[in-house]
Write a structure and sequence with these properties.
Distance between the termini of chain C: 59 Å
Order of helices and strands of chain C: EEHHEEHEEEEEEEEEEEEEEE
Oligomer: heterotrimer
Structural class of chain A: alpha/beta
Mean pLDDT of chain C: 96
Chains: A alpha/beta, B alpha/beta, C mainly beta
Strand content of chain A: 15-25%
Helix content of chain C: under 10%
Low-confidence stretches of chain C: none
Number of strands of chain A: 22
Number of domains of chain A: 3
Low-confidence stretches of chain A: none
Helix content of chain A: 25-40%
Largest interface: A-B, 61 and 59 residues
Strand order of the largest sheet of chain A: 5-4-20-19-18-6-7-16-17
CATH class of the largest domain in chain A: Alpha Beta
Largest sheet of chain A: 9 strands, mixed
CATH topology of the largest domain in chain A: Rossmann fold
Number of helices of chain C: 3
Strand order of the largest sheet of chain C: 5-1-6-8-9-10-11-12-14-16-19-18-17
Chain lengths: 433, 569, 278
């Protein structure tokens, strides 16, 4: 039995991108994984299940096996012919693949968008109006004496977050759990709330109101309500007090706030609160990015086009306006005539109308797994898992970039997103000449 | 049209090559492959440069073009991009411009200015990989980046314990790990204080929790730099940037290392000195500290400076000086991004508009130009706008016009705040930069200061990076005809990079990939192993990434070019 | 006025971008020249004449020009962009960015209009008989420059963030609005005849919002100032009584939010705070 140990492996599940995994491979399979959280183990144990085994092309109402070259050819023709294609997904693949995605969108005149629109897009839109006071995760580890989780449940969605980076981590200036005050704000008592020092229960869809009330209290304004968002004034005043008097505070926010009523403006208000607090103490804010490279998708798209997502390249220059140029909205209005989806399953998680409109247009999916989106596609191309079967650059939730490595060979005939996209791009360029 | 030959002959140009003492002579330049050669065969392609200025390709010693904070700036400002888009062509990728251009656009626009080498001024080590990913995607230009070390925990601890050799060893390791080119120091100690929301206001303030002063950091790193024989001096953004009266901090910083000067090459570079040349005690009585700084620089050969000249209009400020950026946000009320980086550094971004009618902005405009006109040795003062802090680099031709033409300055002066005009010395200054001096401060001197021996000149063996500008100095006076000069320098007639014709006026004809330089200083094996031992523990305690994941492989850079030197230790 | 008609002659699949379908670009051109004006259909450049039947006579003065667009142009973006005079009438539904950056002239829509109606408008008048979407009179992303002048009248309902970063002018919604009307508003007037979902005047620093219908609550950073007998939209007086709130305190704002007293019993509590010493 041949065995090999890979150290300092970077996990490719959530935005924590923990880089201390130790993986043991025996006879080509993972036999042991050290330092992996439950979600990470879940991926490591299951990444080979329900995979697309070979490229497929639709014939009538069936998907039949095809060669990679045939699949690429059909996909290239669909894209080259289309008048308003969207290229969507990108958050679960490498930066190198995303770079090719933007190049492809530029070449064919399509819309380059990533999953940000359905998770932390509102946060970015908020930043564009207010700005953002943030840091890398190590700053929290070393300095934070106040940690607030707002609409985020790291115990379930980012299991190693507290131990590696925040409440339970050992920092230079905050050595023990006692040195930190952890507060959770959520609509119900989550498991994260249970292990926090205090919990503030907020009425659903009232994040903006509560943030507004806290900001006003921090500014010493008199509130004319004795309860806001279901939270009594006394509790609001207490929270404002804690925030103003901490040495280094941070708000980690999740989908609980970005996806509740008012979306981008909820974050706008949170960013404004943090900005106001900086007049009195050191305070920062950070989104709990869900996918391991959604941050990378934003970064690559921004440096190549100037904009982090929802970029319309159809007229030969980048144009950005979420609500207009975002994939989900384009699909809701049934405006697109072809789509390329990379490492994402929008048919499962988009609003019904958008999913239906996506299913009825020529759809090309590049994904390791069988999903609803692959089942509805004209062309399916299986790909290797980034950070397991192929290497690539990925961005942690705080913008730190890591080079994910490979430690297992992909199944026979399955290649990386980079290779597929490079081939697709070359083919499209030939057709377009 | 494709040419089979790799030989190029630039005929009859009016050459300005200060390193080789050529000052406006009519000469031919011969290029074979990517180098300047003595002569070429009859089959060479010929470019007629009659009546045109020919200079080495521009070398920009300080610009913010790639990396985490630049990209945060792009994300922050969709409104900056909306008004200035770049259309795709058969050769060009689409993009956006104005003050924070996208990567491809950055390469194209610098090329059309005749620039061929640009240095990214500030790479946070933990995020240096991001800097290189963007540098890899800037086409055409040769590049490098400076590694931010002035608030680094390990360095501060080593210097406090007087462990100079270990500090030098760590710096050597850091430059290799981050593929950096030089030691960059920004607000030494101040950015660590800002990690707690605090500020440092003078060179003797102790950095909280580290018991070291900014002076000790600057002196220590200067010594380390000398021990390592690195090609460029320590590159310093001083404390108190943007604070009235800060010209004194600048002089004190320059003076702090004056006794370390051994008489050969300069040992400290002060960057964007305009921003740290403020005299006065408040915004109301702000005036120019340029005369005092220039006086010091004229008398002390161990210093080089770059201008950080402002131009009026809308731009974006972005630096590793987190506390300064917060201060600017409060002053202007504009949106603000801040990002502190664990154990190392920080950054901040604030959009800003410089206004002619604003007293402070008008004084700032004067400070940069006064520095340029009062410092006598053009080999020690370089033209920059600290892009985009003072102005986007696309305004370089405008700055050039102010340097070569008093008439151009007068035109600008006529429109600025009149109290500021009365306060400044510049109205009375007659000096006009010659074309040779212009070539020095935009390419020859910067290449020399960087230790890039094949850049900034047109001698045999130099890289074939050439800029041809459509301006005939034999028939036109730059001072009188500055609008034409401005147009010529804004739109190079031809830009040649590595022997390939890249651009003709505004059109990009070819696209190549440029090199990324990084500096390796070989230290002794014993010192190297001892520092590596200490580092492993340090990583566990201080960082949230593993040491093996921190280090950037050389082949991560698209076309790496190592500049290797031997250390004294 | 002389009319030139544009009748849409095909069912649009992908978005069309047509900023030159406006009086300034049409005036002084022959019909053939107009038909040859380039527009975008998705990622392809086409001519106006390929999707519109253009009829009428050349008009040489902008004040005489009336453009009539017939049919469903809900996928056509930027009609009327930058216009400085003349008139556009749309018999159908209009697309996004109608009247974007408009300087003068008038636009009237018989059906609905898309989002970003009158964005960054400087002057002129837009009237929509049906409903509209989000960001009426708003600013572009990242910019703090919404509508500065002019008048937008919507007979139906509007969506979210109407008047975002508004600096002047008037927006009248005769139906209801969704969230955040007047977000980041600096000046100007917004009138909502029926209901507002929530968060009126969020982060406003100046200007005036009048809600004539129901709003379930007021943001905690607003303070009651008085009860007023009436409120004004430009010269027109609307009979109250209205609660007058001032805010947004979080922006040190002096914006005025008028809310009809009748029908807003949930807001009665604020009367306890009237005349209180601060």
């Amino acid at each position: 039995m041949s065995s090999k140990i890979f150290q300092d492996i970077i996990c490719t599940v959530c935005g924590c991108c923990c880089d201390n995994l130790e993986i043991e491979i025996k006879d080509g399979n993972i036999s042991r994984a050290k330092n992996a959280c439950a979600m990470s183990l879940g991926k490591l144990m299951n990444f080979n299940k329900e995979r697309n085994e070979f490229p497929m092309v639709r014939n009538g109402d069936k998907l039949s096996k095809a060669s990679l070259s045939e699949a690429i050819d059909k996909a290239a023709n669909i894209l080259a012919d289309s008048k308003y294609p969207i290229l969507y997904g990108w958050s679960l693949t490498s930066c190198e693949a995303i770079e090719l995605g933007v190049e492809l969108a530029d070449c064919i005149g399509g819309v380059m968008d990533n999953t940000t629109g359905t998770c932390h897009g509102p946060g970015i839109i908020g930043i564009q109006d207010v700005g953002e006071s943030t840091c890398t995760l190590g700053e929290v580890k070393h300095r934070a004496d106040l940690i607030i989780y707002w609409g985020a449940n790291p115990v379930h969605a980012h299991p190693n977050h507290m131990m590696r980076y925040s409440a339970l981590s050992k920092g230079r200036f905050r050595a023990t759990r006692k040195d930190r005050n952890v507060i959770t704000v959520d609509v119900r008592m989550t498991d994260t709330a249970k292990i926090s020092d205090s919990f503030i229960q907020i009425e659903p869809n009232k994040d903006y109101e509560l943030l507004s009330a806290i900001t006003a209290t921090v500014k010493d304004l008199e509130l004319e309500q004795d309860k806001v968002a279901g939270v009594p004034l006394e509790e609001i005043e207490n929270l404002a007090d804690i925030m103003v008097n901490c040495e280094f505070g941070i708000i980690f926010f999740g989908l609980g706030i970005t996806m509740s009523l008012g979306k981008s403006r909820n974050i706008d208000m949170a960013l404004s609160l943090v900005r106001e607090l900086n007049k009195r103490t050191k305070f920062l804010i950070m989104p709990m990015r869900g996918h391991f490279n959604v941050t990378g998708a934003n970064q690559v798209t921004a440096w190549q086009t100037g904009y982090p997502f929802a970029v319309d390249l159809s007229k030969g220059f980048p144009l950005y306006n979420p609500g207009d140029t975002s994939a989900v909205d384009i699909l809701m209005r049934d405006e697109c005539d072809a789509a390329l989806v990379v490492a994402s399953d929008p048919i499962s998680n988009f609003p019904n109308q958008a999913a239906r409109n996506l299913a009825k247009i020529p759809l090309i999916t590049i994904d390791p797994h069988v999903t609803l989106t692959t089942l509805c596609s004209e062309v399916v191309i299986p790909s290797a898992h980034v950070g397991i079967e192929t290497e690539g650059s990925i961005y942690r939730m705080d913008g730190v970039v890591l080079e994910a490595r490979k430690f297992i060979e992909p199944p026979n005939g399955i290649v990386s997103d980079v290779e597929i996209l490079q081939n697709l791009l070359n083919r499209v360029k030939k057709i377009s000449k | 049209m494709r040419f089979l030959t790799s030989e190029l002959l630039i005929k009859n140009g009016i050459i300005f090559d200060p390193i080789n003492n050529v000052d406006g002579e009519k000469m031919d330049i011969s290029i074979k492959d990517d180098k300047i050669v003595d002569k070429v065969s009859k089959g060479a392609r010929v470019l007629d440069a009659s009546g045109k200025i020919v200079m080495p390709g521009g070398v920009d010693i300080h610009s913010h073009i790639a990396g985490s904070k630049v990209n945060s700036g792009r994300i922050l400002r969709p409104e900056d991009h909306e008004k200035d888009v770049e259309y795709k062509t058969k050769i060009k990728r689409s993009g956006v411009g104005h003050s924070i251009p996208s990567t491809f656009t950055t390469g194209y626009r610098y090329s059309t200015l005749g620039y061929t080498t640009v240095i990214e001024a500030a790479a946070p080590p933990l995020k240096a990989r991001h800097t290189h990913e963007e540098l890899n995607e800037i086409p055409i230009l040769d590049k490098a980046c400076y590694t931010l070390l002035g608030n680094n925990w390990f360095i501060m601890e080593l210097l406090k314990e007087n462990k100079l050799e270990e500090c030098a060893a760590y710096v050597s390791w850091m430059l290799e790990a981050t593929r950096g080119y030089a030691i960059k120091i920004v607000d030494p100690g101040g950015v660590e204080a800002w990690g707690w929301g605090n500020f440092i206001t003078n060179l003797e303030d102790e950095v909280p929790n580290f018991s070291i002063t900014p002076r000790e950091i600057v002196v220590g790193l200067c010594k380390a730099n000398k021990m390592l024989n690195l090609p460029h001096a320590i590159h310093v953004h001083t404390n108190n940037l943007g604070v009235p009266g800060n010209y004194q901090t600048t002089i004190e910083t320059m003076d702090s290392v004056s006794n370390l000067y051994s008489g050969d090459k300069p040992i400290i570079h002060i960057t964007h000195t305009q921003f740290t040349g403020f005299k006065g005690s408040s915004w109301l009585n702000l005036s120019s500290g340029a005369p005092e700084i220039a006086d010091y620089v004229n008398k002390h050969k161990h210093v080089t400076l770059d201008l950080g000249q402002i131009a009026f209009g809308d731009t974006t400020t972005m630096t590793a000086d987190g506390p300064f950026q917060f201060f600017l946000h409060k002053l202007s009320g504009n949106k603000w991004v801040n990002c502190d980086v664990e154990a190392e550094t920080g950054s901040g971004i604030v959009p800003f508009t410089y206004r002619r009618s604003n007293y402070v902005n008008a004084i700032q405009w004067g400070i940069g130009l006064e520095l340029a006109l009062l410092v006598k040795d053009p080999w020690r003062i370089f033209m920059t706008t600290d892009h985009p802090n003072g102005a986007p680099f696309t305004k370089y031709p405008l700055v050039i016009s102010w340097l070569v033409s008093k008439k151009a300055r007068e035109k600008a002066l006529a429109k600025i705040n009149s109290s500021a005009k009365r306060r400044l010395d510049i109205p009375g200054m007659d000096r006009e930069y010659t074309l040779s001096e212009l070539a020095i401060i935009t390419r020859a001197a910067t290449a020399k200061a960087l230790g890039l021996k094949n850049k900034g000149h047109l001698g045999i063996g130099a890289d074939a990076d050439v800029a041809i500008y459509d301006f005939n100095p034999s028939s036109m006076d730059p001072s009188k005809h500055y609008p034409k000069l401005k147009r010529a320098f804004g739109n190079a007639h031809y830009t040649i990079k590595g022997g390939k014709i890249i651009s003709k006026k505004k059109e990009i004809l070819d696209c190549v990939d440029g090199r990324t330089y990084w500096a390796k200083s070989r230290i002794s094996k014993d010192l190297e192993s001892s520092i590596l031992e200490n580092l492993k523990d340090m990583f566990e305690d201080s960082y949230t990434v593993r040491m093996s994941n921190y280090v950037i492989r050389e082949d991560y850079l698209k076309i790496p070019e190592k500049i290797e030197v031997t250390a004294e230790v | 006025m002389a009319e030139i008609t544009f009748k849409i002659n095909k069912i649009l699949r992908v978005p069309v971008d047509s900023p030159d379908l406006n009086p300034d670009s049409i005036v002084g051109k022959s019909l053939d020249e107009i038909r040859n004006i380039e527009i975008w259909e998705g990622n392809r450049k086409i001519n106006l004449g390929e999707i519109f039947d253009v009829n009428g006579e050349q008009v040489d003065k902008i004040e005489d020009l009336s453009i009539r667009v017939i049919g469903d142009v809900s996928k056509v973006k930027r009609i009327g962009q930058n216009m400085s005079g003349g008139n556009i009438q749309i018999d159908g539904n209009a697309g996004m960015y109608l009247g974007n950056k408009m300087k003068d002239g008038s636009i009237i829509v018989s059906g609905d209009a898309g989002s970003w109606l009158g964005a960054s408008m400087l002057g002129g008048r837009i009237e929509v008989k049906g409903n509209t979407g989000d960001f009426v009179g708003a600013s572009y992303r990242g910019k703090s420059e919404g509508m500065k002048g002019g008048m937008i009248l919507i007979h139906g309902d509007a969506g979210n963030e109407i008047g975002c970063w508004m600096k002047g002018g008037t927006i009248q919604i005769m139906g209801s609005s969704e969230t955040y009307p007047g977000m980041h508003m600096k000046n100007g007037t917004i009138y909502i005849d029926k209901n507002c979902l929530c968060r009126a005047g969020a982060q406003m620093s100046g200007g005036k919002i009048i809600i004539n219908g129901k709003i379930p609550e007021i943001l905690p950073s607003f303070a009651i100032e008085s009860i007023r007998g009436s409120a004004r939209i430009d010269k027109e007086k609307i009979q109250g009584p209205f609660y007058l709130f001032v805010g947004d305190g979080n922006e040190d704002g002096e914006g005025r939010l008028y809310v009809r007293k009748e029908g807003n019993d949930d807001l009665k509590y604020c009367e306890d705070y009237l005349d209180m010493e601060v």
